[in-house]
Structure formats: C-alpha cells, structure tokens
Amino acid sequence: MNTTHLAGTYPLGSLSARRIGYGAMQLAGPGVFGPPRDRRAAVAVLREAIAQGVNHVDTSDIYGPHVTNEIIREALHPYRDGLIIATKVGMVRGPTGSWEPAFSAADLERQVHDNLRNLGLEVLDVVSFRASFSAEGPAEGSIEAPLTALAELRRRGLVRHIGLSNVTASQVAEGRRLTEIVCVQNHYNLTHRHDDAMIDELAAEEIAYVPFFPLGGFTPLQSSSLDAVAARLGATPMQVALAWLLRRSPNVLLIPGTSSLAHLRENLASASVVLSAEDLATLDELAERS
pLDDT tens-digit profile of 252-277? Predict the structure, then answer.
C-alpha cells in the first residue's frame, strides 16, 4: 500500500517535496564506486520508488562516478512532472575510489555540467555544495567562493536552487548571507543529534533539513532499546528510526537509500508508523546515552 503521502510535504524553494524521498547513493557498486552487480535491479528500485509516490530523489554524479545518474536517467527519463532531483557538488573521485575535494569555480561548473549531461536535464532542481574541509565531518572554513560560483551558475539558468551539505552552523549563516539556501544535508539520527539547534533554527526560516545516516553508530544498549520499541510496534528498527525523524520536525526530509525492493518498501512504510508518547520518551533517551 502506498503510504508516502502520510508523511506530508515540505518546500524545497519553489518546489514541494514529499517528506519521504529516496537516496540513490547505494545504486552504484561497492564503496559507491563502479557499476552495481545488478543494473536491472537498480532500475527496478528507482521505478518502484516513483510508483510508490516518491517525488524527491537525492543523487550526485560522484556516485560511481557517473553510474548512479546514468541509472536514474535510464529508469526515469523522461521525468514526470513534479519529480525533484537533488544533487551535490564539491568533490570528485580518485582512480581507486577516493573522495577528493574539488570546489574551485571551474570544478563546480564542470560538475554541474556532468550532472546535467548524465541525468539528461537542462537545469538542476537543487544543487548542494558539500563542504570538505575535514575528512572527519563538518569543519570550519569559508564557503564564500564556491557559493558565489554556484550562484552564478544559477543566474545562468543551470541551477534552480542551492543547498548545503556537511556544514557547520556558522557556514549555514555565511551561506544564507550570500544566497538563498533551500536545504541543509548533514549527518543526523536518533543518537547523533549535534544539529538539534540547527534543525529548529532552519524550521523557523522554512528551510529543509535532510539527514543522512539515519541508522548507524548505535551502541548495543541503544540498539536493544530501539529493537524493543520496534517489536512493540510490529515494525523494523529502521522504520522506527525514520518515523522518529519525521516526528522530530516538519522541515525534516528523509532520503533513505537501498538497492533492495523489499527494503525500499519497508522504508517508505515508515510514514505509517505511529509513535506514542512512551515510544518517543524511550527513543529520546538514546541521545542521552550516546
């Protein structure tokens, strides 16, 4: 049963995104490098996501590289009206799959054109600049130069909206002084809650927050508590973690990724999981134990 509509929608600039979307990262090969083992299965997952009501697909031409965007084009082009394809720039892949910062104006223009070509688009709905000042996560550093370059690409009609990824609160503030920011994509989940204040501040400004790694890094004790809530609800731990994110704030947009049809359907069904006050109290305690 299609339940994605139960999560509602939220603006991405001038666009309206269903709050449960799909992250295409896992459609590439192991390590997000090279082709998938089963390209037909990858195509089937994408088509099923759209059939189930997803209208927000998150991708990047560095996945593969090029592989994921080529699969999206094969599966979904010509794109139906209302489908939002969001991508990221700011990094390239090395010959053995390493992730390398690349955010000069020339780098960003080349990456935007790569995304346009491989997706078969004339304009990209949302392009997020992924900051990479540290391999450990968000780290301070000015993003003025890359944001200025992306704003110029938007002025030229190649980009519709601009977002940020892997950024600090001060970088979000800097970005918003430079141009309109429609979304922030950072690591956030039940136990990794460093962005709690940022989420609330963005919600007040009607800016979307797109968490990645919604399930991961839990201790055995945290996992057992999550498992207990899931068992009580007749749901999977991933569904409960996603349902909690949906309850966290109305500006949260989910992009769980999978290369499995069964897991895709499970993820999308999280929109129908109803968390009680007791469930929420138990889940909120997980952050205190982290």
Answer: 999 999 999 999 999 999 999 999 99
Residue 288 lies in a domain: no
243 within a domain of the structure (yes/no): no
- Domain extent, residue 38, equals 11-217+250-258
**Which one is catalytic: 22, 63, 188, 209?**
63
How confident is the model at residue 176, as a pLDDT?
Answer: 98
Active site residue 10: no
The reply to whether 201 falls in a domain is yes
Q: What is the DSSP string of the chain?
A: ---GGGG-EEEETTEEEESB-EE-GGGSSGGGBS--S-HHHHHHHHHHHHHTT--EEE--TTTBTTHHHHHHHHHHPSPPTT-EEEEEESEEE-TTS-EEE--SHHHHHHHHHHHHHHHT-SSEEEEEEE--S-TTS------HHHHHHHHHHHHTTSEEEEEEES--HHHHHHHHHHS---EEEEE--SS--TTHHHHHHHHHTT-EEEEE--S----HHHHHHHHHHHHHHT--HHHHHHHHHHHH-TTB-B----S-HHHHHHHHGGGG----HHHHHHHHHHHHT-
pTM over 0.90: yes
